[in-house]
Design goal:
With about 110 residues, the chain is of the alpha+beta class. The chain contains two helices and three strands; from the N terminus they run H-E-E-E-H.
């Protein structure tokens, strides 16, 4: 459910204070834990270090991001892989093709000598 139009978007006041101290387009990363803060037009051109629970992910704000939240651009979960029989078959095929490439490179190197 979205925020009330009457209230307007939530923008963390500490972020606005940090922005006022910097020039637009500066290379400094502004670290923040405020993932729920909406991106406003004043934030365009700055790089934010958005915390994902473990580390700060750099997010460069562009014009297309206005209206979204900072947390949308910093994933908190790490995708490992899907499991199952089909996935194992795909992985074994890719491993075989990699091994074939390595063997082909070794064969060409020995022919050159």
């Amino acid at each position: 459910m979205s925020r009330s139009i009457k209230k307007g978007p939530y923008v963390d006041q500490r972020l606005i204070a940090k922005l006022s101290n910097l020039k637009s387009g500066s290379k400094d990363i502004i670290k923040t834990w405020a993932r729920r803060s909406a991106i406003s037009p004043e934030m365009i051109g700055f790089t934010f270090g958005v915390h994902n629970g473990k580390e700060f992910i750099p997010v460069y704000v562009t014009e297309d991001m206005v209206g979204h939240h900072l947390g949308e651009f910093s994933s908190t979960t790490k995708f490992s892989r899907h499991g199952g029989k089909m996935q194992r078959e795909l992985e074994s095929k890719s491993a075989e093709s990699e091994a074939a490439k390595v063997n082909a490179v070794k064969a060409t190197e020995t022919k050159k000598k």
